[in-house]
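Structure first, sequence second, as always.
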């Protein structure tokens, strides 16, 4: 929750911005200015609109969405937006705080996950009813969100509506072809040979599309490192349940991963979380491709280990 001091700065900044907008005649662009909160949403929106709208991240690349605290300058960006696309179920909580402080009733907000079937969050300290917010690390979920975003933008910008919807369909085709190519590589593999633990509660949406369940999540809650006792409990569970692969995050160091590998003998594979690096239009396609190929490798490894054990 924002402190009263930060909130006061927010409101002073908002007042200044409002006065500037009121006192200067500005010739606006015909293009929509579309705000986004996370890297995957930049890719989604860029794929949909291409050069027919302006995309404005609420915060510059390089921030950590797990612990970012809103800054007064975020309001300036929000004031430039016609519409804001949000995850809205966690992971971009900072944006909800900025929205609340701005009090912009005219701003259109697209909740990209409104039609996505959500999975329960996993972790030793996760509360009852908590949902997994990492729908952007999934193929079917990404397709659904791109359709939701494209349909909403088509209503806001009907002159370009058919263009947006056609691009959404093309994105869906690319993603489905990617999944089909991965499945073709697994025709002779036993997917159930893969027994999975993950450091982060981020990969369930992708894994479930290949019929794989996560047996253990190392972090007790989103972005929280395990205590020594929680880590030992996880090590014991991995040993007892036959988990053979641990997926961890490509761009974030996990101090406990080496300990788990040493104590259990699990094979380590890295997945992209898709929330690091520069904002690029092709980030989701490229990094989802990398993730699916990593998954194929892990399944083949698990099959090899299973055959050797027989």
């Amino acid at each position: 929750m924002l402190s009263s001091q930060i909130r006061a700065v927010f409101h002073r900044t908002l007042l200044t911005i409002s006065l500037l907008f009121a006192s200067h005649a500005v010739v606006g662009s015909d293009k929509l200015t579309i705000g986004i909160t996370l890297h995957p949403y930049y890719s989604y929106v860029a794929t949909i609109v291409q050069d027919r709208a302006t995309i404005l991240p609420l915060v510059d690349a390089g921030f950590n969405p797990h612990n970012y605290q809103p800054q007064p300058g975020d309001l300036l960006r929000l004031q430039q937006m016609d519409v804001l696309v949000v995850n809205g179920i966690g992971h971009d909580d900072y944006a909800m705080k900025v929205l609340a402080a701005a009090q912009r009733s005219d701003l259109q907000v697209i909740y990209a996950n409104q039609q996505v079937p959500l999975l329960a969050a996993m972790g030793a300290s996760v509360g009852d009813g908590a949902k997994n917010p990492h729908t952007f690390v999934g193929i079917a979920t990404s397709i659904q969100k791109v359709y939701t975003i494209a349909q909403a933008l088509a209503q806001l910008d009907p002159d370009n509506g058919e263009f947006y919807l056609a691009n959404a369909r093309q994105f869906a085709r690319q993603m489905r072809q990617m999944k089909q190519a991965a499945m073709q590589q697994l025709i002779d593999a036993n997917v159930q040979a893969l027994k999975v633990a993950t450091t982060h509660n981020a990969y369930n949406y992708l894994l479930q599309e290949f019929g794989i369940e996560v047996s253990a999540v190392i972090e007790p809650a989103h972005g929280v490192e395990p205590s020594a006792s929680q880590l030992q409990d996880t090590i014991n569970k991995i040993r007892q349940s036959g988990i053979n692969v641990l997926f961890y995050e490509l761009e974030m160091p996990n101090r406990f991963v080496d300990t788990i590998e040493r104590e259990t003998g699990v094979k380590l594979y890295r997945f992209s979380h898709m929330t690091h690096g520069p904002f690029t239009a092709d980030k989701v396609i490229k990094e989802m491709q990398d993730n699916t190929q990593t998954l194929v490798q892990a399944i083949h490894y698990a099959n090899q280990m299973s055959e050797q054990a027989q």
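Margin note: The chain has ten helices and eight strands.
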